[in-house]
Design brief:
single chain; two-stranded antiparallel ribbon
């Protein structure tokens, strides 16, 4: 290797040639450098690479080979992703969203199978419900099947609560685009763990221990706004005394006539149905449709345990019954899907919405031997298991009644104006009720001084409740306000709640409306069409409009009768161009 050759190799780098000759070349002359020859193996491997690279590029460039490589790569990614998902599925954190959670645990009707299944899962190290219930005194309710199922599940050891670190996602950032109400994520326990977390004894009722109800076969109306015959016309003095919480109380709570609720009391129920409603149940789900106002919605995602132990009751009036019989939806079994139909006769009000408040707020009177109830309006479809709902909104929160707050409004005065603007009820009656609350109950607009209460306006279509004296009193007094004033129960909710909370240590779990929308889906009333969706604006080029009917008339040979035989049609091509031009103009 010579300096000339080196200079030629580096001639493309400009000024480096001179530096190379003056510096590095002199150094090489002073001290000789040993240059190793490349081995034959390296030369052969480099030659093979040079031959292989064009070969690979030539075949990869082909479309079929490239597509085959992409398919193989996609399969490898899919297999790796499936392995990762199966590995992470051992962590039992279940989050419901638009599609609610369905338990991954098998639910058996045989308690021994439940015990064996849960024992195998727990022995494999899978996380389950936290805490030990061994210190809890066991109870023996009349329902032996439910008790056995709950006790078997409780006997298994549990490690940490699966939802203890779950938090609601933050609300979407404010922007110019209006965002309406929508469901959000909710963490539900598996059904078996939810059943195991059910308290073995009733919650403690503060102060009030014994609650009885007024019975009056001949109620007399003494005031202009004294309620109804069904409610017993409580006077203003009786109303005020009912908010004075004592250990034993007797209050108006509907059904003032008859030997028992449903028996010649107004809101009458057949004797066979009354006997069923008096049976003991730990959990029930109830709804109502009056005046054929809604379509019955069938629940979804209901576990086998709930199918066996949780009855679903739907109260209807005779008008709705006639429509169901004509459409063959109701037969002698009185079952319609999940729902056991209860026909109500001699309904107390002419307004179907006010009749619906009877089962909604007075379920504890219709079902005297029930521990927990979930009320949903007739327009709603339940899509989460009842045990999971009770665990999430009552048992986990240490609450005995839960109701969602309104998604938008939290002030009663704003709610009243919205009701008037929407024509929900007579405006004069709404004004009278709000003026009464402002004058007599010192109702004020919602402000921060009410914290930790976050809203005065509920979304009252769902009520999750434990039947104990204090919650029964609350719904009784709430019904009395609906009976005395307007059926818009959102207007009277906060007044009743605040008056009770001022006397006893008690509160209501008002959860987010988006959480409610996670476990119920809302339908529209009959005759009410959903708002039309705006049609997407598509490019006219993709969807050209059809030619108007006038165009074929232009194409028709209008001058055929005036043209002689054999005469040339002048301007025919020009005429076609005009037609094509008009078609293009019409399309674009």
């Amino acid at each position: 290797m010579t300096g000339g050759s080196l200079g030629l190799r580096t001639s493309s780098y400009g000024s480096l040639q001179q530096q190379f000759q003056n510096g590095f070349l002199q150094a090489t002359q002073a001290s000789p450098v040993l240059v190793r020859k490349p081995s034959k193996m390296l030369l052969s491997s480099s030659r093979e690479k040079e031959r292989l690279l064009p070969f690979i590029c030539r075949y990869v460039g082909r479309r079929r080979v490239a597509m085959l490589l992409l398919v193989v790569l996609a399969l490898l990614v899919f297999v790796f992703g499936s392995f990762t998902v199966n590995k992470e599925s051992n962590i039992t954190l279940h989050i419901g969203s638009m599609t609610p959670y369905r338990s991954d645990f098998p639910v058996f009707s045989n308690p021994l199978e439940v015990e064996n299944s849960l024992g195998d899962k727990n022995s494999s190290g899978q996380n389950s419900l936290g805490g030990s219930d061994q210190s809890r005194a066991p109870s023996i309710p009349p329902s032996a099947t439910i008790t056995t199922l709950r006790d078997v599940i409780r006997s298994t050891p549990r490690l940490g609560h699966q939802c203890e670190n779950f938090t609601l996602p933050p609300p979407p950032p404010p922007g110019s685009k209006k965002i309406g109400p929508r469901p959000c994520e909710v963490c539900y326990l598996p059904v078996e763990d939810a059943i195991a977390s059910m308290p073995s004894s009733p919650s403690k009722s503060p102060v009030l221990q014994n609650l009885t109800y007024v019975h009056d076969e001949n109620p007399i109306k003494t005031e202009i706004h004294g309620g109804s015959d069904f409610g017993g016309y409580p006077s203003m003095k009786q109303r005020n005394e009912s908010f004075d919480i004592k250990e034993s109380m007797t209050v108006h709570c509907g059904f003032v006539k008859g030997s028992k609720p449903g028996d010649r009391s107004g809101f009458d129920i057949d004797e066979a149905d009354l006997m069923e409603l008096e049976q003991f149940h730990e959990v029930i789900v109830a709804s109502a449709i009056f005046g054929n106002y809604d379509n019955i919605q069938q629940p979804r995602n209901i576990s086998e345990a709930a199918r066996k132990n949780v009855p679903f009751y739907m109260f209807i009036d005779e008008k709705t019954e006639a429509v169901m019989k004509n459409s063959s939806d109701l037969d002698s079994s009185k079952k319609f899907g999940f729902w056991r139909i209860i026909v109500v006769r001699n309904i107390p009000y002419t307004d179907p919405r006010r009749n619906g408040k009877v089962p909604k707020l007075l379920l504890h009177r219709i079902f005297p031997n029930v521990r927990y109830s979930i009320w949903i309006d007739g327009k709603l479809q339940l899509v989460v298991d009842p045990y999971q709902i009770l665990e999430r909104f009552l048992w986990r929160e240490n609450a005995n009644i839960a109701i969602s707050r309104h998604y938008k409004r939290y002030d009663v005065f704003v709610e009243a104006e919205a009701n008037k603007n929407a024509g929900k009820f007579d405006n004069a009656s709404i004004d009278y009720q709000i003026d009464f609350y402002r004058r007599e109950e010192n109702l004020t607009a919602y402000n921060e001084s009410k914290l930790p209460i976050t809203s005065d306006v509920p979304e009252g279509c769902v009520i999750v409740k434990e039947h104990i004296p204090i919650t029964n009193l609350f719904t009784c007094l709430w019904f009395n306000e609906v009976d005395r004033f307007t059926p818009r129960d959102q207007l009277s909710f906060s007044t009743v709640r605040d008056k009770i909370m001022s006397k006893v240590s008690w509160s209501i779990n008002m959860f987010e409306d988006c959480e409610r929308r996670n476990f119920v889906i809302q339908d529209y009333h009959k005759g009410v069409k959903p708002p039309p969706r705006p049609r997407p604006v598509s490019p006219v080029i993709r969807h050209p409009s059809p030619l108007p009917r006038s165009i074929p008339v232009v194409r028709s040979p209008v001058k055929k009768s005036n043209r002689r035989k054999g005469e040339r049609r002048s301007g025919q091509k020009r005429h076609r161009k005009v037609i094509a031009g008009s078609r293009d103009n019409n399309s674009f």
